[in-house]
């Protein structure tokens, strides 16, 4: 039977914005030794701003226009940002055959023409050579390439910012006894490195496909010692498989996908990563009282 103190622990956590879905998760939360974060929407705001547009033999507006249409149905934060950069929806563009490729980008037919929007990996898979200018390599943002048919059409540089409480979140986890903090991202190496440095994370791994993220979590699970648990924190967009694989899946409640909120063991109602340490502290206190 579950001691009554567990119910008051769950109640206390929920008043602080941490929804714990069961007494067993409170125990797992008290023993977290490794915290693995997804980057976009978890440690960063997930609201990208367009910082540069580099069209290649196409009009700049036309490039933004194509990207926005290809991203019409995607709920990835990048898609939302590209749509915001070109809000002119009512222009009678015909978009069909939309196919989203997790960790890569999106393919669609726009007015009968094949258009691909995504990262360098996606372009490489299509045999399309991308731009390699200094700005692309600077790491100042996430570079999204566009191809029309098998012709390169340029790229859009977008940039995200770390959440206001992300550095605090990492510091608090250390204070709460977490041994290792890790970030996994499908974004470029330079972008991952900059965020990891800024936040003081112990480890980061970039340019990962959803399956690579699972492999990294499995490696970290195998490296755990004693009764430690591994928590994975994400927004559910391209990271639902890792959320499921971790001992404890933690989802963002406000901006996260419905599927992630449903599949997660713990939900952070206000999307603040610093609430993970709050949850750990409540869980530890509850277990001390219960014993
Ligand atoms: P993260 O690990 O940072 O949360 P994802 O795994 O969701 O990122 O995506 C990894 C990369 O795949 C993105 O940085 C982007 O290059 C590309 N990508 C994913 N979805 C899209 C999309 N809808 N449009 C364009 N690019 C995308
Ligand atoms: Mg993600």
UniProtKB/TrEMBL annotation:
<comment type="similarity">
    <text>Belongs to the cation transport ATPase (P-type) (TC 3.A.3) family. Type IB subfamily.</text>
</comment>
<protein>
    <recommendedName>
        <fullName>P-type Zn(2+) transporter</fullName>
    </recommendedName>
</protein>
């Amino acid at each position: 039977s579950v001691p009554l103190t567990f119910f008051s622990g769950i109640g206390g956590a929920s008043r602080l914005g941490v929804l714990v879905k069961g007494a067993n998760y409170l125990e797992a939360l008290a023993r977290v030794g490794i915290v693995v974060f997804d980057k976009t929407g978890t440690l960063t705001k997930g609201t990208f701003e367009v910082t540069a547009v580099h069209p290649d033999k196409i009009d700049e507006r036309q490039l933004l226009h194509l990207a926005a249409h290809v991203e019409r149905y995607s709920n990835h934060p990048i898609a939302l940002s590209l749509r915001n950069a070109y809000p002119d929806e009512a222009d009678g563009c015909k978009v069909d055959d939309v196919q989203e490729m997790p960790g890569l980008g999106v393919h669609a037919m726009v007015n009968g023409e094949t258009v691909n929007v995504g990262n360098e990996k996606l372009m490489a898979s299509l045999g399309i050579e991308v731009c390699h200018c200094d700005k692309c390599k600077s790491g100042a943002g996430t570079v999204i390439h566009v191809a029309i048919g098998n012709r390169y059409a340029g790229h859009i540089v977008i940039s995200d910012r770390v959440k206001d409480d992300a550095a605090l979140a990492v510091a608090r986890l250390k204070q709460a006894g977490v041994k290792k903090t890790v970030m996994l991202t499908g974004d470029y190496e330079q972008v991952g490195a900059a965020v990891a440095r800024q936040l003081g994370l112990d480890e980061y791994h970039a340019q990962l496909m959803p399956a690579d993220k699972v492999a990294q979590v499995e490696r970290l699970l195998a490296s755990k010692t004693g009764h430690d648990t591994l928590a994975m924190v994400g927004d559910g967009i391209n990271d639902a498989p890792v959320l499921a694989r971790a001992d404890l899946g933690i989802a963002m409640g406000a901006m996260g996908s419905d599927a992630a909120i449903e599949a997660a063991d713990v939900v952070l109602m206000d999307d603040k990563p610093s609430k993970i340490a709050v949850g750990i502290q409540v869980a530890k206190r509850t277990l001390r009282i219960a014993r």
